[in-house]
Design a protein that fits this description.
Blueprint: H1 2-6, H2 10-15, H3 26-66, H4 72-109, H5 122-155, H6 161-185, H7 189-196, H8 204-208, H9 212-249, H10 258-265, H11 268-306
Helix pairs in contact: 3-4, 4-5, 4-7, 4-11, 5-6, 5-7, 7-11, 9-10, 9-11
């Protein structure tokens, strides 16, 4: 562990997840299972609420065509959809917690359990509890500029309006800076809980002490690499997609209709290009998430080697 502590640099941290060679495929299998379960969850949601979605769309179309107010059925349907989305988000958060716990358990403790590393065990519940703390912190930070904006609107006059607007602008910048600082300081919170095998969210403060700059740099490198690689991958399918869109835009107004607009979008090339774009985006996002896990795991292992946690 001392060797890891000495070599904790932003480059080493950014590449940590790609250098774990003890057992191949652990993270890949966990990621594939995560996306498979996510697709299943999404499919169940669509299947359960397909009738409600159709009813809401039909009522919106009817109201638009007749220029009348929507029927009460529209609001009832939207309420059911909102309830369903809340349930979907709750289930997704549990799935994400199990996935993050599976990856961090391997990266931090070198352990796997359950199916492809997935287990709705104590580790997963600790990660899930951390999500709620993050939600509370995010809400608290967001409330600062909103509160200042409301106060400014209520007290602004023609004389002090420019200064008030500038004050709100500075408050927004300060909130963003504080958010980045807090996000990096607490980034290893779930990894700290995994290594401690107890809920240790705020042990992240000890982990990041003296490593803030390296961790911020590591996250920056990962994000820049993500955008560079993602843009390069999207450039492979962009010519097909833009070619079809230009074809739609070049349609003479006299010949333009819904069918002429949708025809290029239904072509095999366009379907293949859109499918490839989605798959490449999902793959890039998965690698980004794993790289973030790697940065946090390396920081926790280094702090454990120093005896900080």
């Amino acid at each position: 562990m001392a060797e890891e502590t000495q070599r904790f640099t932003m480059t080493e941290a950014a590449l940590d997840v790609f250098r774990r060679r003890e057992r191949r495929g652990v993270l890949i299998r966990a990621t594939l299972l995560f996306y498979a379960l996510f697709a299943l969850l999404g499919g169940l949601f669509v299947a359960a609420f397909s009738t409600t979605i159709a009813e809401v769309i039909a009522e919106l179309a009817r109201a638009a065509e007749s220029s009348t107010a929507p029927d009460f059925a529209l609001f009832a349907g939207m309420w059911r959809l909102a309830s369903g989305m809340l349930l979907f988000q709750l289930c997704y958060s549990l799935l994400l917690a199990a996935y993050e716990a599976a990856c961090l358990r391997w990266l931090v403790r070198g352990e796997t359990r359950g199916i492809f590393g997935f287990a709705l065990d104590a580790d997963a519940w600790r990660v899930w509890a951390s999500f709620w703390i993050w939600l509370g912190l995010l809400a608290g930070l967001a409330a600062i500029p909103w509160s200042l904006t409301l106060v400014t609107i209520a007290t602004a006059t023609e004389a002090n309006a420019p200064g008030a607007v500038f004050a709100v602008f500075l408050a927004v910048l300060a909130t963003i800076a504080a958010g980045v600082w807090l996000a990096v300081r607490l980034a290893p919170a779930t990894a700290a809980s995994i290594v401690a095998q107890r809920f240790a969210f705020f042990d992240a403060w000890k982990v990041t002490r003296g490593r803030f700059g390296s961790m911020l740099g590591a996250f920056f490198l990962v994000i820049v690499a993500y955008y560079i690689v993602g843009s390069a991958l999207q450039a492979l399918v962009a010519p097909v997609m833009f070619g079809m869109l230009f074809k739609i835009a070049a349609t003479p107004p006299a010949e333009f209709s819904l069918d002429t607009m949708l025809a290029p979008l239904r072509s095999p090339w366009m379907i293949a290009a859109i499918s490839a774009s989605v798959l490449l985006s999902v793959a890039a996002a998965a690698v980004l998430r794993l790289a973030f896990f790697g940065v946090n795991a390396r920081a926790v292992r280094a702090a454990r080697g120093e005896g900080a946690i």
